[in-house]
Amino acid sequence: MKILMVNTVCGTGSTGRICTDIAAQLEKAGHTCAIAYGRGNVPPAAQKYAIKIGFGFGVKLHAGLARIFDNSGFCSRFATKKLIRLIEKFKPDVIHLHNLHGYYLHVGRLFGYLKKAGIPVVWTLHDCWPFTGHAAYCEACGCDKWKAGCSRCPQKKKYPKSVFFERSSSNYAKKKKAFLGVKDLHIVTPSLWLKTLVNESFLGGYDTRVINNGIDTDVFKPTESRFKEAHVFGEKKMILGVANVWDERKGLKDLIGIANGAGGDYRLVLVGIADKQRGSLPGSALTIARTNSAEELAEIYSAADVLVNPTYEDNYPTVNLEAQACGTPVITYETGGSPESVPKENVVRKGDIAGVIALLGKDLEVNRQILSREEMVEQYIGLYESLPMTESKNG
């Protein structure tokens, strides 16, 4: 089979690594794979799959227009034409969509083409953006307007941020018109939580199934680490927080409160902190910039006594999987799909800082049933092979 994936990034961040993990396993199984991506840098190991369709200026223009007109996902016509030309040249048996937001595509034009192309489409949803009029997530603000039609979005100034117009109602109508009517489209969600939301949305008529995110268990495993010695921890225990981008929904303030409340026996380590955030963090916290080195992350996970993920909105976070694969227990909020991957005893109510602190001193269990990327891709290949028109032209 020939599989063409489409995502905002390639080989970086959680969705970018999921794409390259799938590509690597497809290649091992004898299939051909390419990843069309919109922005960012690509790690050397992923470059053989990567085909950039976005333009630096085009991405900035799209982001600027979205901030003014609230039309994220409906710009970047040239990049979309480039993607369509790529599809026609590559002739994939299956098109596998991932994140389509990120200021690099015109989804109306892309789906107009897909409705005519007759190529089976698999779409892995990593958030709620496809069925809302604006927001990528709506759980924290308690909004469920998307079930019938959006208006006056309470998250107008959250990603994808708009500072002037609010057009969630028209965006909702445009997405519904664009995304419905694809003859052979199959939706995948990494979590049961997101599948439930999809079934309640205008996408509910499509075949939807859960395939949990898988990780590279050859890398993410209990790993010898001198991280604590290098950073002079002494007898202190290590509370770890990891995020691609630390923002309000990732619970950074809560994590700081947890570390402060835990007392002097603990030290907080934060991975993924931007330079501009460091000045607002406690001096005792050890901050590390975002890393795309899986090996480095495995060493950090393995050194930690516990990973705390106080996320307020999330789908099926890979940090939970990676930490537990390295033998480190995870405490998380009862939010989205995050609890689905950890023992139920390690889950506390959203915002319950005292509940997290109470768990820190306990002997916490680790989920030993983490899906490997090989197992994840086996499920995707099974899905591909169940679709019509997927008999490979290339053997």
Spans of 5+ residues with little confidence (pLDDT < 50)? 390-395
User: Which structural class best describes the helix and strand composition?
Assistant: alpha/beta
Average pLDDT reading: 94
Record field, number of beta strands: 13
Task: Describe the protein in words.
This protein is an alpha/beta fold and 395 residues long. The protein folds into 2 domains: 2-214 and 373-386, Glycogen Phosphorylase B (Rossmann fold, 3-Layer(aba) Sandwich); 227-360, Glycogen Phosphorylase B (Rossmann fold, 3-Layer(aba) Sandwich), CATH 3.40.50.2000. The chain is built from 12 helices and 13 strands. The chain is globular, with a radius of gyration of 21 Å.
Topology:
Elements: E1 2-7, H1 13-28, E2 32-37, E3 50-52, H2 56-69, H3 77-90, E4 94-97, H4 107-117, E5 121-124, H5 168-179, E6 185-189, H6 192-200, E7 207-210, H7 227-230, E8 237-242, H8 252-262, E9 266-271, E10 286-288, H9 294-303, E11 306-309, H10 318-325, E12 330-333, E13 347-348, H11 353-360, H12 373-386
Parallel strand pairs: 1-2, 1-4, 2-3, 4-5, 5-6, 6-7, 8-9, 8-11, 9-10, 11-12, 12-13
Helix pairs in contact: 1-12, 3-4, 4-5, 8-11
